[in-house]
């Protein structure tokens, strides 16, 4: 006998298959989304670190930029400091300027400059930097009274550029004058101009470091000799031994 | 026929499937939301890096525009560093030179003087041997030349029997800095 189904009986809707299909579709979609997301999302910690580093760089460079803008307003003052330091340690090839300076000091100290020799490179360079550097030897012989010679030496030792006497020899001459010979060392330094990214790699804090400040003040305090260059002298003369 | 038990089982299954479906939808939505959030975060970070890098480049250009200032600053820094190395090693003999006349007894005349960083050699003539002894004593006297000279050594002494004039040669050793620093 066949069972009879009452007409008022509500059969459950056939949701089982449909819900399974939805579940499978959703989970499938989720897996696909995870598969797509994973390779992109796994770089997040690395990118986060990179972002922090870039932000730190940006903060630093903004600070540098502000400092540079502030320094640009003080360019005249900076140029004076730079010139004082360049006088103290000149660029190489400035030996003639040093010769002129020694001659001027001798005149001011009322001593006779008997000889002034360039004795070549000394190999006693104390500057150790990546910039072009050099040191040369000079030999001076001056004569005059002891007091004037002392004054001459004192002026040379405290003048710009820095001239280091290696030793001194004093001897009396027949005329009663004292002759003093001084071998000197002069240091030179060329700072090449910065290029490209090196421009922004300067540690600006070094500008206000105690060492830089003391050196600059000391260089500014050194005696400066200015020269009047005579450019009117003619070339070519009949007797080379007559002025 | 009693269909209730089978109806009940079928109803429970249907209920289970309905809840399972809701949970699945909920879970899937959460997973997809997390994934979308992560993707958003990833692209936001990338965009942040790009913006920061662009700002860095802009600031670099602003800095590079101040080339003159930067080159001047660079020269100051490099030359100040060089100055700090050269200046302390600069020997100064003038203070020493001005001290010598204070040490000489009357009647003493120097003929030559050689100064280096270790010693001062004095050659000269005087009126008697006692004057040479005085010179050496004064040179090492703490109140006179003692702060500068550590020792005085007689190198040569010759007396002219006719005039009694004494030719002498004395070496004065300079005190070095480390010696002075010692207690």
UniProtKB/TrEMBL annotation, chain A:
GO biological process: type IV pilus assembly; type IV pilus-dependent motility
Segments passing through the bilayer: 21-41
Keywords: Coiled coil, Membrane, Transmembrane, Transmembrane helix
Coiled coil ranges: 61-88
InterPro entries named in the record: PilO (IPR007445), Transl_elong_EF1B/ribsomal_bS6 (IPR014717)
Keyword Transmembrane helix in record: yes
Record carries keyword Transmembrane: yes
Record-given protein name: Uncharacterized protein
The species this protein was found in: candidate division WWE3 bacterium RIFCSPLOWO2_01_FULL_42_11
